[in-house]
């Protein structure tokens, strides 16, 4: 069961990530076509749509994580995939901005894939293999961001709505796949007996982290790293379009290269390097490389420099699976979904703040009204956030040891 379930949830994750990556190259142009306005206005709309999606995830991820602890992982995953199909279908049909944002509301409110998949992997992976399992999640993310943006850059030439139709079809396919083939991973005797609705709101869910000293400390690192990554994602396409004159095809190429480096890092570097370094050293190394990469992104004055920095980021891939392994071993089996929901809350909170902050910095430091020309301002701010998170993680990992949960 463990192997078949692992393959199915990784397939679900691949389709989810590839689908999101598929629409990234065309979304700013699509928003500009729906609402008109300048490229800077479209960038702010883009940041707003990312923030809306993340805000809904912020409020609903703890609910889905807790419900998966009570009723099992499979039904929550099915609900999430159905919501993704419906949300992207609404977006594909949108005649204006109103229906576009309604589609993002539907998809965001039901987005629970990563929360429940992480809990699923914690259910089926022995403690000594958890870093490798979470590394597979990162590798699938990377491959999805190779295939999705590359395909999106191509099909975007057929029409700006085509990628959304494709994503809706992908989500419907994975719903059918999971319904037929996905085994439940959480045995009945390990499920929550009661639902703690206080933990079903985003801030009440964070109380679950407070019960574990290591998680309470690492939460700040996760928060700061999430802020940096969300600024990067929101600014990436406007940045390369402004600085290098890239269009949808070139946007897709850069995102595909980013995904390829992530896949190589998670699929090859993580299984080789994490066992040699240990999870704690891997966290420190990964965060250090990430902080350096952010600085270099902001300094890259030519496209070839950007691709050279992307190659460096493979070493930065080791921190997230190592962190996930440390966290999953620190909590009880019947709280995996709740804790993953709380961690998703942190990520979603920064998914609200990060796009707004990143696109604000981009619009403030580019164009004729800029206080000074500094297109990489959001990347430099991200580097500072990651560096602060590194300092917190280093101190926490020296003070606390994870508590085995099995």
Automatic annotation (TrEMBL):
InterPro entries for this protein: MFS (IPR011701), MFS_dom (IPR020846), MFS_trans_sf (IPR036259), Tet-R_TetA/multi-R_MdtG-like (IPR001958)
Residue ranges annotated for the Major facilitator superfamily (MFS) profile domain, each copy included: 5-401
Membrane spanning residue stretches: 43-64, 76-95, 101-122, 134-156, 162-182, 218-241, 253-274, 294-318, 339-362, 374-397
Subcellular location: Membrane
GO cellular component: membrane
Alphabetical list of Pfam families matching this protein: MFS_1
Domain of life: Bacteria
Keywords annotated in UniProt: Membrane, Transmembrane, Transmembrane helix, Transport
PROSITE patterns: MFS (PS50850)
GO molecular function terms listed in the Swiss-Prot or TrEMBL record: transmembrane transporter activity
Membrane topology: Multi-pass membrane protein
Name listed for the protein in its UniProt record: Tetracycline resistance protein, class C
Species of provenance: Calidithermus terrae
């Amino acid at each position: 069961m463990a192997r078949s379930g692992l393959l199915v949830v990784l397939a679900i994750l691949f389709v989810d990530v590839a689908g999101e990556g598929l629409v990234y190259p065309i979304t700013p142009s699509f928003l500009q076509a729906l609402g008109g306005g300048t490229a800077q206005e479209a960038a702010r709309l883009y940041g707003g749509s990312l923030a809306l999606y993340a805000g809904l995830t912020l409020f609903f991820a703890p609910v889905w994580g807790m419900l998966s602890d009570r009723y099992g992982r499979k039904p929550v995953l099915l609900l999430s995939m159905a919501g993704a199909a419906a949300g992207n279908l609404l977006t594909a049909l949108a005649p204006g901005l109103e229906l576009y944002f309604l589609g993002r509301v539907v998809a965001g409110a039901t987005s629970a894939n990563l929360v429940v998949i992480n809990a699923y992997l914690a259910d089926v992976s022995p403690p000594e293999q958890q870093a490798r399992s979470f590394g597979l999640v990162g590798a699938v993310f990377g491959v999805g961001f190779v295939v999705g943006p590359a395909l999106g850059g191509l099909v975007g030439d057929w029409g700006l709505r085509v990628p959304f139709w494709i994503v809706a079809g992908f989500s419907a396919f994975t719903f059918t796949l999971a319904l037929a083939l996905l085994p439940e991973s959480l045995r009945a005797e390990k499920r929550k007996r009661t639902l703690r609705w206080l933990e079903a709101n985003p801030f009440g869910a964070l109380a679950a982290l407070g019960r574990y000293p290591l998680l309470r400390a690492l939460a700040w690192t996760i928060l700061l790293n999430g802020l940096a990554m969300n600024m990067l994602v929101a600014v990436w396409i406007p940045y390369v379009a402004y600085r290098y004159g890239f269009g949808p095809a070139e946007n897709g190429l850069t995102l595909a290269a980013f995904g390829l480096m992530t896949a190589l890092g998670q699929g090859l570097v993580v299984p080789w390097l994490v066992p040699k370094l240990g999870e704690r050293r891997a966290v420190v190394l990964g965060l250090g490389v990430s902080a350096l990469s952010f600085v270099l992104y902001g300094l890259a004055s030519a496209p070839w420099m950007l691709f050279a920095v992307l190659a460096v980021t493979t070493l930065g891939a080791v921190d997230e699976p190592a962190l996930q392994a440390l966290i999953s071993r620190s909590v009880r089996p019947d709280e995996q979904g709740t804790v993953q929901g709380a961690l998703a809350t942190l990520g979603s909170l920064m998914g609200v703040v990060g796009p707004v902050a990143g696109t604000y910095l981009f619009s403030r430091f580019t164009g004729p009204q800029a206080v000074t020309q500094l297109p990489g301002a959001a990347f430099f701010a991200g580097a500072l956030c990651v560096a602060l998170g590194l300092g917190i993680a280093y101190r926490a990992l020296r003070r606390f040891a994870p508590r085995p949960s099995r």
